[in-house]
Amino acid sequence: MKTSIVPYLVKRFLRFDNEQPFIFLSALLAFLGISLGVMVLLIAMALMNGFDNEFKKKLTIMNYPLTITPKFYGAVNEELLLNLEMKFPNLSFSPYVQSAIMARSGSKLEGGYLFGVNFESEVKVNSVLKEAIKDQSFEKFDVLIGKTLRDEFALLVDDKLMYIFTHVEPGGMNVTPKIKRFSVKGVFDSGLSAYDKAYNYTTISSLQVMLNLPSNQYSGIHIFSQTPQEDIIKLKEHLPQSVSIKGWWEDNVNFFAALELEKASLFIVLMLIILIAAINIISSLLMTVMNRRSEIALLLSLGATPAEIKKVFLYLGVVIGTSGILAGIALGMSGLWILSTFDIVHLPKDVYPTSTLPLDLSVKDFLSIVFGAFVIVIISSFYPAKKASEVDILTVLRNE
Hints:
The chain is α+β, with helices and mostly antiparallel strands. Helix content is 56%, strand content 19%. The radius of gyration is 33 Å and the shape is elongated. Residues 28-211 form the MacB-like periplasmic core domain.
């Protein structure tokens, strides 16, 4: 009898009681609340991860995974580039020359940066430029501009765009900024207007001429890597003291720290839904204990142990909570599939590469949600189970 009393009583107490329908209703509300909480948490965490990944992709494209820059003048040169290409054949390298400029068209001015690049190397590290230029060739003093700048200045292909360089040259008794007209040969679209307005690309020889730099000297080297956090450590071991290297994430530490804080805050707030549902488990079990006091006292008098009674009500809470968690997982996964498959929430294509919601539920988040919900269920079931095991047999039977 003792080996079967616990599961038997759990099944019995889970049945609908015509005399006490509110007990069953309270348990049902707890089940639905936990299901809803788990479902919302799964979808919310997948959305947060999806948007985080989209932001990272955008920032990685225009900021480059890794960048080598000089600590002092003339440190990044062709010799360093060839040495790195030989030692790291799995990575893609693109040397560049950079200058701050003012772009002028008519009476309009816009500040930004002009990058001199080798387009054959640059397309290997920058997918946006690869898509923009395709098989197009760039001659000296041709320029590739962003979509936002093109629209703001109302420029067409082969139009002339004036650049005012911060690099100055002496002229008589004063110094004057260098000014040069470039021919617009193409337009790129990164999806981020700040980059599309500020970044401009020309041939590396064009900018070296404007800045009076030798052909073997660069402002830096862009590097494409699938695993930049690992490769940056390896590269540092082979770089001279005259240069430094940094990853794209180092310029955006505060931004992604804020995203992580927002994600953690959202997780805690939504976990409160499960906590509120767990209160219904407590109330449901306490009502069951109060309603079944005579039965509990009789079971104890017939030889059932307090530990067995505690197990009965602990298992009751676990069954209600676990079934709610499983139902929430099923609903959450179904919701993620629907949102990722159908264009229910439309996203602007000029910002995101897809019109459907970006969703990415990590294993870590999934396990955190399931584990957190289960812990809340166990804690919620413990107090009613303890009260059930402490029923006073003599007092209850005397009153009965």
